[in-house]
Design brief:
heterotrimer, A mainly beta (165), B alpha/beta (532), C alpha+beta (491), B: 532 residues, alpha/beta, 2-enoyl-CoA Hydratase, Chain A, domain 1, 3 domains, seven-stranded mixed β-sheet, 20 helices, 41% helix, C: 491 residues, alpha+beta, Dna Ligase, domain 1, D-amino Acid Aminotransferase, Chain A, domain 1, 4 domains, eight-stranded antiparallel β-sheet, five-stranded parallel β-sheet
């Protein structure tokens, strides 16, 4: 089966197939490993990768898996759905302005119904002492402003939605 | 079970010569497969791309479970027809694994003339659907065809109907089908998604209608775009003809994979009985064993040794009727009863076949026919011995078989031997020929000589005595035609088999076929009247 | 002598929990005032009592003086510990409490005010003969400010008078840019602090941040508890601190610590405070500012001196004299604190959010973890992204580094991206290992500190993702074994 994972922003296209004796084979970029997992009594898992054992903590959220091993520390692996990504790119990219990072709204320059031109400043957000001004990706009209000044939001939250002018 | 002891001397001159010749034949075959599958004019590929579509092979890659095999059926259909310009008869069919389920696939190839149907197109589809019916295999349709080729309308008309009839019977048998509409499904083609349990349509490119825009305009004067008549939104929101809308082909395929994952797991009528084991002898050595000249006999045990698990074979009646080798072996862990020609069929070998076939029916063992036959022995003595009624026993037992039958033609398939050894008309679940094969009612030389004799006699009757050169030319012309029509490509072009198979691919094809055949229940054996 | 039994903790997170532990050890009862978003936090769950604060935003609730004073009255708290941040350096808060008869566990309001105004503080320190960097203060004569600033010479640093924590500071290297930079700094100061007044100081190249913990009582007794070095910073945010400072000779150490004690003594400092200095490569040091509260990195001092600073804060607040004299305070071994932040080092340290799915604090000899989170808790951008402080003590600096690396590797925090691996890379960087880190190190060495996950790291991560995806495993194992064994065979 195919999966696309994001680790530290880098995409990895992976093919997972059935291996012998309950193991799986994982192919990526010309590399093949055989892997299996078994639970340990303390809540960890023992991952065996090409015969080498690693005791790790694993936890999953809606679209990410987090793994911690004492040797390599923690890693977040995000699962992306390439088919869905295709669809979204066509349908919505130019309409929704999403948060490049989580933070707080500092200034809202526009109101619902305002006509805007590409490049116009729409909203200023602050995150870690860093202010970012988000600009209109295209000409249009403001359909909605989803957060007011002082509101906090998460990564990729939709901040402003545009309609055609 | 003992391992077959190979007597092949891989260092011998004969082996080397055979190997060279067979390797060339197989290389040529693979080249033709490659061209048929992938070679398309740049402008056709550009057209498909401009429509925002994927090529059929790209769709298959997305659809099939990665890291699993795909056994393409009749890949070279139409290769010797329509001047070789309709690769695979514009359609890909095959047996593969989708979401862990074994399924048959029908995928239109719109990269040549928009994927229009020629007469051989529905014939290929009907054969695939027959396989689905016999083996109770789900079918996935990837629809993207321009409809019937106008110059082939009459041929398509009759054969095409059976596509839809088979779809109905499949549904009646409780075998699910899914259609993905990537392009237009016009006229009869519109029934393909409509007759499926599930259907998916791609927004923008997919369309389903009995009459497309030009026909509608001609018939009623209405002017509509294809999307208005039968596009994604109309059919998924208004008419309910199609079930799922998709924004892209990739998404449509994902939806289909999810649907297949919901199918109830297959109930199998037989299972592997052992852990599989690769053959002990290298399958590549088959190339050195089989002579490209079908008149040169070889020991089929040497072939069995390079197909079956561990090269192990339990031979039945090893000393009786020795021109037919019978016995048990395992292929990918599945037990099979093998019948393999080692010469002309005589009365004893025919009776041995009938007996062994009934044994296998009794103990529910699928049959594998390894065909290399020039027919049943002829002559007064043999008739006195009852060769015809003994051959009839073999046919009766074989036709009455309830267990799945599989046929692989390894070299020659001539005369009634082709029938006795489960030729195309005898409903093998799958039948393949190696690319070196020759087949026909008689050998090309016999055919050419007989026909030439008849023609010369005709000329003489008409008062024209042909001279030596004229006779040689006539014989050569007749021979060349007979030779061409007896070769493997001619046969596979007309769907006489389920495709040509490289000898080294035989084991995997059989493994997949056995696993597929296990989807259908096996009835109790009963036969017609045996003439004793 | 003020007597109190019930103390309200006007803070959250790890410091609220740490204060709670300190107070409980003294037999006091605790109340944690909190916004609803922190209702499930360990401090709230462990405190004897909890009282909810309301506000338009969570931060606003923790800054609402009137509400907190009212909460004390309602619940009967006789004293307040403000922790750090929030209202800890707010003179109005200290006064409001005093007026209600509630003890503010911290310095006197006028001290807070003095040290809260950077310009006044700087003048106060300079007038008493302690070193300050050459500079110019705008309000001395606004008309000539730019000219005076120019005379200080470049490089120089523009700072807002009301600032702190690095906000609004600008380094000017090109004298031609001076006026423009002053204008921008003023706008920024107005936005952040509502106060556009500025001052400039000569900028120290490769500066190191060294601070001294001081403690004073009501009787004018002041001791220092030695220094802490906090040079490992990114965007003025400390991430690794240690004590003793590897930069200082014994003599320099004594000079700087005595200067700090002297400054505290000069302002009759009461309670725990920290005097921060800029330390230049040549050995000079200049007063930077004084923090009139408990510092985030206070556990370092506790680890090497054995003094419980919260306990001493409470004792002083109760009017008791310091229990020790300067010579009683001995530094033993070396301690390093690493701040575990919810942030993505690979993406410019952008804050990370999420739910804490798994949290296992590291343990072991010499390891102290101050954390205020629990599994299931959401990490949002509403507050500072610090999740935990991992403080390791060793007999030597090398041992403290080894233990810190080990502890960071052992710290399991899943669900939110943290800087744990980044911290280990900093600890292992030669510049840090050799004790040469200055405040510019992280920016200068950014490329070397970037993670380059090896193939085997990626294998492990992907294997974990695959093997914990049941839907995927089901799909993979639904392929019949024979077909899987054939692989992607094509006829």
């Amino acid at each position: 089966m195919r999966r696309r994972y994001l680790i530290d922003g880098q995409a990895h296209d992976v093919v997972v197939t059935r291996g012998a004796d309950g193991a799986v084979q994982i192919d990526r970029a010309g590399r093949r490993i055989s892997a299996r997992a078994e639970p340990l009594p303390d809540g960890r898992h023992r991952l065996t990768i090409d015969g080498r054992e690693h005791a790790v903590w694993i936890a999953s959220s809606a679209d990410s898996v987090f793994v911690h091993s004492n040797a390599t520390g923690a890693a977040e692996i995000e699962t992306v759905d390439p088919a869905a990504a295709d669809g979204h790119a066509r349908a919505g990219a130019a309409d929704a302005l999403t948060a490049p990072m989580p933070g707080t709204v500092i200034v809202v320059h526009v109101a619902v119904g305002d006509a805007v031109v590409a490049g116009q400043a729409l909203i200023v957000i602050e995150s870690m002492k860093l202010q970012t001004t988000l600009i209109a990706p295209r000409d249009g009209r403001i359909r909605a402003v989803h957060f007011g000044v002082g509101s906090t939001f998460g990564l990729k939250a939709t901040l402003v939605t545009l309609a055609d002018a | 079970m003992k391992r077959i002891e190979s007597r092949i001397d891989t260092a011998s001159e004969a082996f080397r010569r055979n190997h060279e010749a067979m390797s060339a034949i197989v290389a040529k075959f693979r080249e033709r497969m490659e061209i048929t599958r992938h070679q398309r004019p740049a402008h056709e590929i550009k057209r498909v791309r401009n429509q925002g579509k994927l090529l059929v092979r790209e769709r298959l890659d997305l659809l099939l479970d990665p890291g699993t095999p795909f056994l393409e059926l009749s890949a070279l259909a139409a290769c010797e027809d329509y001047d070789g310009e309709v690769p695979g008869a514009n359609v890909v069919t095959g047996l593969g694994v989708v979401s862990g389920r074994e399924v048959l696939i029908h995928a239109d190839d719109s990269s040549v003339k928009g994927g229009v149907w020629y007469t051989l197109t529905p014939r290929k589809l009907v054969r695939m659907l027959d396989i689905a019916l016999e083996n109770r295999l789900p079918v996935l349709h990837l629809c993207d065809s321009g409809g019937a080729f106008l110059e082939e309308l009459s041929g398509v008309y009759i054969e095409g109907g059976r596509v839809f009839r088979n779809q109905c019977l499949l549904s009646k048998a409780g075998v699910p089908q899914v259609a993905m509409v990537f392009g237009h499904c016009t006229a009869g083609g519109a029934y393909i998604p409509a007759l499926c349990d599930y259907s998916i349509i791609v927004r923008g490119t997919g369309g389903v209608f009995l009459g497309g825009p030009p026909l509608v305009k001609a018939a009623t004067g209405e002017e509509h775009t294809a999307d208005e008549i039968g596009g994604c939104d109309l059919h998924t929101q208004v008419s309910g003809t199609v079930d799922y809308p998709a924004d892209s082909e990739a998404q449509a395929i994902e939806i289909c994979r999810e649907i297949v994952a919901q199918f109830k797991p297959a109930v199998r009528s037989f299972l592997p009985e052992r852990d599989p084991e690769p053959p002990y002898y290298d399958p590549d050595e088959i190339h050195g064993i089989v002579s490209p000249d079908h008149k040169v006999l070889f020991d089929q045990r040497e072939i069995i040794a390079r197909i079956v698990d561990g090269s192990r074979f339990h031979e039945y009646q090893p000393a009786y009727g020795t021109t037919l080798v019978c016995g048990y072996a395992y292929v990918w862990g599945y037990r099979v009863g093998i019948l393999a020609n080692n010469g002309v069929l005589f009365s004893d070998s025919s009776k041995k076949a009938a007996h062994f076939i009934s044994l296998c029916n009794q103990n529910r063992t699928p049959l594998l026919f390894l065909q290399n036959t020039t027919g049943y022995m002829i002559g007064r003595n043999y008739e006195m011995e009852g060769i015809t009624k003994d051959g009839a026993k073999m046919l009766m037992a074989q036709a009455g078989s309830a267990v799945p039958k599989f046929t692989v033609i390894t070299s020659a398939a001539f005369g009634a031997g082709y029938y006795g050894m489960c030729g195309r008309a005898w409903d093998p679940r799958f039948i393949w020929a190696w690319p070196n094969v020759h087949m026909g009612v008689m050998g090309p030389e016999q055919a050419a000589n007989t026909l030439a004799d008849v023609k010369i006699a005709q000329l003489r009757r008409n008062g024209h005595a042909p001279d030596e050169t004229e006779m040689t030319q006539l014989r050569r012309r007749v021979y060349e035609k007979a030779e061409r029509e007896s070769n493997a490509y001619f046969a596979t072009s007309r769907l006489w088999d389920d495709g040509l198979l490289a000898p080294t691919d035989t084991r995997n094809a059989l493994g997949m076929a056995l696993s597929a055949a296990a989807h259908a229940p096996i009835a109790d054996p009963h036969y017609g009247i045996f003439r004793f | 002598m003020p007597v109190f039994q019930k103390v309200l903790i006007a803070n959250r997170g790890e410091i609220a929990l740490r204060i709670h532990h300190g107070l409980k050890a003294m037999g006091l009862s605790t109340v944690v005032a909190h916004h609803a978003v922190d209702a499930g936090s360990p401090a709230v769950l462990e405190a004897d009592q909890a009282i909810e604060l309301h506000g338009p935003t969570p931060v606003a609730a923790y800054l609402d003086i009137a509400q907190i004073v009212e909460a004390c009255r309602r619940i009967g708290a006789q004293a307040v510990h403000p922790g750090y941040g929030f209202l800890s350096e707010n003179a109005a808060f200290a006064r409001a409490l005093e007026q209600t008869g509630i003890v503010f566990i911290g310095p006197r309001a006028d001290t807070i005010e003095l040290m809260g105004d950077k310009v006044r503080a700087r003048n106060f320190v300079a007038e008493r003969g302690f070193p300050v960097a050459p500079g110019a203060i705008e309000e001395d004569d606004p008309a000539t400010f730019v000219e005076r600033a120019r005379q200080v010479g470049t490089p120089l640093l523009i700072k807002p008078s009301a600032g702190g924590g690095g906000k609004g500071m600008r380094i000017v290297r090109d004298p031609g840019q001076l006026e423009a930079e002053i204008q921008s700094a003023r706008r920024e100061g107005e936005r952040y602090f509502g106060d556009g007044r500025l001052f400039v100081e000569s900028y120290v190249e490769r500066p190191r941040h060294i601070e001294v913990q001081v403690l004073g009582d009501d009787n004018g007794q002041v001791v220092h508890l030695w220094e802490r070095e906090c040079s490992v910073q990114r965007r003025f945010q400390k991430i690794i601190e240690e004590t003793p400072s590897p930069a200082l000779s014994a003599r320099q150490q004594r000079d700087i610590c005595e200067a700090a004690a002297g400054i505290a003594r000069a302002c009759h400092y009461r309670g725990a405070g920290t005097v921060e200095f800029i330390y230049a490569a040549g050995g000079e040091f200049y007063f930077l500012e004084m923090n009139t509260r408990l510092q985030v990195e206070h556990p370092l001092t506790e680890m090497v001196t054995g003094v419980d600073l919260v306990r001493e804060q409470v004792r002083v607040a109760r009017g008791e004299p310091l229990a020790f004299a300067q010579y009683d305070i001995v530094q033993q071994g070396h301690a390093i604190e690493c701040r575990l932040y919810a942030e993505d080092a690979a993406h410019d340290f952008r804050p990370a959010t999420g739910k804490i799915l798994r949290w296992r604090a590291p343990t072991g000899p010499g390891v102290r973890v101050d954390a205020g989170v629990r599994e299931g808790q959401a990490v949002t951008t509403a507050f500072d992204p610090m999740i935990a402080k991992i403080v390791c003590h060793g007999a030597t600096r090398a041992q403290a580094i080894e233990r810190s690396v080990r502890a960071l590797q052992d710290a399991v925090l899943l669900g939110v991206t943290t800087n744990a691996r980044y911290l280990t890379r900093v600890l292992r960087h030669p510049e840090f290992m050799q004790g040469r880190a200055d405040t510019g190190m992280l920016a200068r060495c950014a490329d070397e500190l970037r993670s380059a996950p090896g193939n085997e790291d990626t294998d492990l991560a992907i294997a974990a993702a695959v093997l914990s995806d049941n839907e995927l495993l089901r799909a993979v194992h639904s392929v019949p074994p024979m077909h899987a064994a054939m692989g992607a065979w094509r006829n």
